[in-house]
Design goal:
The complex is a heterodimer of chains A (391) and B (332). Chain A has 391 residues and is α+β, with helices and mostly antiparallel strands. Chain A is built from eleven helices and eight strands. In chain B, the strands form three sheets. Chain B has a four-stranded mixed sheet. A four-stranded antiparallel sheet of chain B has the order 2-3-7-6, with no helix packed on it. Classes of the chains: A alpha+beta (391), B alpha+beta (332). Chain B: This is Acyl-CoA dehydrogenase family protein.
Chain lengths: 391, 332
């Protein structure tokens, strides 16, 4: 156990901090706000491309994919430096964090250069088509159908909760290619450009406000997708799904730690009761950082302990949600004001990060619902970590 | 920071765990409670294993590993009081093989021509009735005195394995040599983190026993551990333990490194252990059903050790108040 990083890691941190110091877009340059997770204003594209070209976008990647072959620990301090300054390295997080990463793991060389590199260089943006009206937590029951017809797949069906799809150029879409196989064994993954005839995207608003449109319904009606857009082997999509989310899992807890860190700075307790929960927040954040860094040490040895990452997700998402609930309620009638800001303006963050207390609290449910609900995580922990019997 | 045991610490944990399983099994603990067996031979075993030599602050994590395992076994010896309360106040190398306890308050020291006179009663002293030596914290310094100089009255408490006593010093004469230079504030950090790890260990025992129960108990033609209502409570116990354990070892790390965050970290450890025991006690008994409420079930020992820990050295709410005061001064 150790409280400090090695000198080479600190040198890496300093080098990145110097890069940020010299290259961060100014507030004036970043005036145009990103309207969804699939939308990149021109300045955000330039910012992401600069990081790609200098190997700072995803430092763990090789240079041809926007990195510098950094170690897991170096990747961690990279994210720490971004989070400390409330800087998003990409405003298309699912494109960079999940879709490009999946393509680099499961795609062909041709797909990596045709799709992953443009996503990473912010030439195009991507959205993730997994959930369906009838397939949420039970994702493997998805029914969007793809039938091979010569050198094309014909896709019919519907996705929902597809964040940023209305602004995205391509969808990484999970489809059923073998309806007769057991449900986990008949799924494949297709890259579907959103400009393809038969693709209809319908953004809809979240409960935070009628203008807050990131979610989409996406309809596919006889959509012809070239067979070369198949990612990974036919009917092996479930492996890609687990891999896609796996990419995010090792460092996903950092998002919650970041939200808690933001809240520690944004909220100033005055009553004894507020101070009491503030102390809980301090402890939750510290525990999450400690357990997260232990997970990181395991990952550095090549050991991904999925149920232990579920522990981090439950702890982090629920603790930050509870803390935001308290922050909202502590505000009293001032907390009614919406929209408003509850923190200084951070031009390199999504506006969510400093929106009204209600907005911030409401958004915390993304943490406990998306990427496997808290209930699903608990079942994973119970069965795979605590060894309790399955139903 | 990388928060993970290094290979030596993992090996130490395995060694300690094996030794505790062999030397302090549930049957022995039961025999102390129901048969009046003397835990003194077990104390000598710990001495023989070298566990009482872990007094250098740099070994705080290693000491923590022993404390967690002993908490899990519900150790009947004065190890916790000796190592985390007495030792940090006493001069190193002066008490080899002996047990000790600490009187943190209630005693005054008065100087006269011949030396010092100790006067007053320290309440709720852990192992105050059976320690060989007592470290007495006064405003004039810390005095280490042979236990026979004071009068200890053991209190009857709900944890049948715990020794708690009121210790009275009725004009006890000590020379100036007995006055040490230990900083009681710093000593208290180890006491807090040590008690926290003991509680974490006890909570792990509660979870272990509970899991064993729900994996084997059948109702409605199913193992009850397959019911989500049961599974999710068990998971909440696990998460609370992981959280408390992380903060407790973090406190031990700051003590080992003499890191300025140690004060804050010690309070976080104790507060988290307190929150953990509340949830683990509640869910543990609940999941066990009526079977968890009998005297013959060993679950009771771990439950009581965990709960008793919350009542000593300040509870979770008190430490949260300290954290709220400190957190702006401490950059975590």
């Amino acid at each position: 156990m150790r409280l400090t990083f090695d000198d080479d890691v600190e040198a890496f941190r300093a080098e990145f901090a110097a890069f940020l110091e010299a290259n961060l877009p100014t507030e004036a340059e970043a005036a145009e706000r990103s309207r969804s997770t699939g939308h990149l204003p021109e300045w955000a594209r330039r910012w992401q491309r600069l990081q790609f070209d200098t190997g700072w976008l995803l430092p763990g990647n090789p240079p041809e994919f926007g990195g510098r072959n950094a170690t897991v620990v170096q990747q961690f301090v990279h994210l720490q430096e971004l989070s400390r300054r409330r800087i998003f390295h990409s405003f298309n997080p699912q494109g960079v964090g999940i879709i490009a990463a999946s393509l680099l793991s499961f795609g062909t060389e041709e797909q990596k250069h045709r799709w992953a590199v443009p996503i990473l260089r912010a030439e195009i943006t991507a959205a993730l088509g997994m959930s369906e009206p009838g397939a949420g937590s039970d994702l493997a029951s998805l029914r969007t159908r793809a039938v091979l017809d010569g050198d094309h797949f014909i896709v019919n069906g519907q996705k929902v909760w597809t964040s940023g799809a209305h602004d995205a150029d391509v969808l990484l879409t999970f489809v059923r290619t073998d309806p007769d196989a057991p449900k986990h064994k008949g799924i494949s993954v297709l890259l579907i450009p959103t400009s393809t005839p038969g693709v209809t995207r319908r953004p809809f608003a979240a409960f935070t406000g009628p203008e807050d449109k990131d979610f989409n319904e996406v309809f596919f009606e006889d959509v012809r997708v070239p067979a070369e857009n198949l990612v990974g082997p036919l009917n092996q999509g479930w492996r890609v799904a687990n891999g896609s989310l796996g990419h995010e899992r090792t460092l996903m807890w950092l998002g919650d730690a970041e939200r808690m860190g933001d809240l520690l700075r944004d909220f100033h307790p005055s009553t004894p009761l507020d101070k009491d929960w503030y102390a809980t927040l301090v402890m939750d954040r510290q525990a999450l950082n400690l357990l997260g860094s232990a997970a990181l040490a395991r990952a550095a040895r090549g050991d991904t302990d999925v149920p232990a990452l579920s522990v981090l997700k439950v702890l982090g998402s629920e603790a930050s949600q509870k803390a935001l609930e308290r922050a909202l309620e502590a505000a009293g009638p001032d907390g009614l004001t919406h929209p408003t800001t509850t923190a200084p303006y951070y031009h390199m963050s999504y506006d969510d990060a400093f929106a009204s207390w209600f907005h911030r609290y409401a958004r915390s449910f993304g943490g406990t619902i998306a990427g496997g609900t808290s209930e699903i995580q608990r079942t994973i922990i119970a069965e795979r970590l605590l060894g309790l019997p399955r139903r | 920071m990388l928060f993970e045991f290094d290979p030596d610490q993992r090996l130490w944990q395995d060694t300690v765990r094996d030794a505790v399983a062999k030397e302090c099994p549930p049957a022995l603990v039961r025999s102390v409670v129901d048969g009046g067996a003397d835990p003194a031979p077990l104390w000598r075993t710990y001495n023989g294993l070298g566990w009482t030599e872990l007094t250098d602050p740099t070994e705080a994590v290693e000491l923590g590993i022993v404390l967690e395992e002993l908490g899990r076994a519900v150790d009947p010896t004065p190890y916790l009081a000796t190592m985390t309360q007495f030792a940090p106040l006493a001069r190193a190398g002066t008490w080899a093989g002996q047990s000790g306890a600490a009187a943190f308050g209630g005693v005054n020291a008065r100087r006269d021509q011949e030396g010092w006179v100790l006067e007053g009663t320290a309440r709720h002293v852990l192992d105050g009735d059976r320690a060989d030596s007592l470290a007495v914290v006064t405003r004039e310094g810390v005095f280490v005195v042979p236990a026979e100089e004071a009068t200890a009255v053991r209190t009857s408490v709900f944890d049948p394995l715990l020794h708690v006593a009121d210790v009275t010093f009725a004009g006890v004469r000590v020379t100036d040599d007995a006055r040490g230079t230990a900083d009681p504030e710093r000593a208290r950090h180890l006491a807090l983190a040590g008690l926290a790890l003991t509680m974490v260990g006890a909570c792990r025992r509660i979870l272990d026993l509970t899991l064993e129960h729900v994996r084997t108990r059948r109702q409605f033609d199913a193992l009850i551990g397959s019911f989500q209502a049961v599974q999710h409570k068990a998971v909440d116990m696990h998460v609370a333990i992981e959280r408390a354990r992380a903060l407790a070892y973090f406190a031990m790390m700051t003590i080992a490194a003499d890191d300025p965050r140690r004060r804050m970290a010690a309070s976080m450890a104790k507060a988290a252990a307190g929150e953990c025991q509340a949830l683990v006690f509640r869910h543990g008994v609940q999941l066990f059903g009526a079977m968890g409420t009998t005297w013959e079930n060993d679950l009771q020992f771990a439950l009581k050790r965990a709960k008793a820990g919350e009542l000593l050295l300040g509870g979770a709410a008190e430490h949260r108040a300290l954290i709220a005061e400190e957190c702006h001064a401490t950059d975590l």
